[in-house]
Design goal:
Belongs to the ribosome association toxin RatA family. Keywords: Toxin-antitoxin system. This is Coenzyme Q-binding protein COQ10 START domain-containing protein. InterPro entries: COQ10_START, START-like_dom_sf. With 141 residues, this protein is an alpha+beta fold. It has a single domain, classed as START domain (Alpha-D-Glucose-1,6-Bisphosphate, Chain A, domain 4, 2-Layer Sandwich), CATH 3.30.530. The protein is built from 3 helices and 7 strands; from the N terminus they run βααββββββα. Strands 1-7-6-5-4-3-2 form a 7-stranded antiparallel sheet. It is globular, with a radius of gyration of 15 Å.
């Protein structure tokens, strides 16, 4: 059964600063909840940015490898390897003024049977909100 998340928030940062953070996989372990490891993988032949994240959920670790395609103020994320049967996400950044950006994040994914407990909408919304908040807090440092 597919799950989805949509969230948005006004963040005090330029779209360029937010884009830099989104594509800085190495920094994720410093601020993203549950992220144990984060690293940048070699870019694709098409110049897409690739990264690997390792998360801990209920004392079990899950690895997630993705490729990010940045087009203007949008970043499309596709899972290359990981726990999802299917995963696609989109960051969309709309400048409000030079130091404020409306940040929108949406994700569509399908979980395998053993992870479907995490697909309950209220839990998905809570985790998604915490992720956006973590990016905002990192930008304020």
């Amino acid at each position: 059964m597919p799950s989805s998340f949509k969230g948005s928030r006004k963040i005090k940062a330029s779209p360029e600063k937010m884009l830099d953070l989104i594509n800085n996989f190495q920094a994720y372990r410093e601020f993203l909840p549950g992220c144990l490891e984060s690293s940048r993988l070699p870019d694709t032949d098409k110049g897409l940015i690739c990264g690997k994240l390792v998360f801990s959920i209920l004392n079990k670790t899950y690895s997630f490898e993705s490729e990010n395609e940045t087009i203007g103020h949008e970043v499309q994320i596709k899972q290359l390897e990981g726990p999802f049967l299917d995963f696609y996400a989109l960051w969309s950044l709309e400048p409000i003024d030079e130091n404020v950006t409306l940040v929108k994040f949406k994700a569509n994914f399908k979980l395998p049977l053993f992870l479907r407990i995490f697909g309950q909408q209220n839990l998905v919304d809570r985790i998604g909100g915490k992720f956006i908040e973590a990016f905002e807090q990192q930008l304020q440092k």
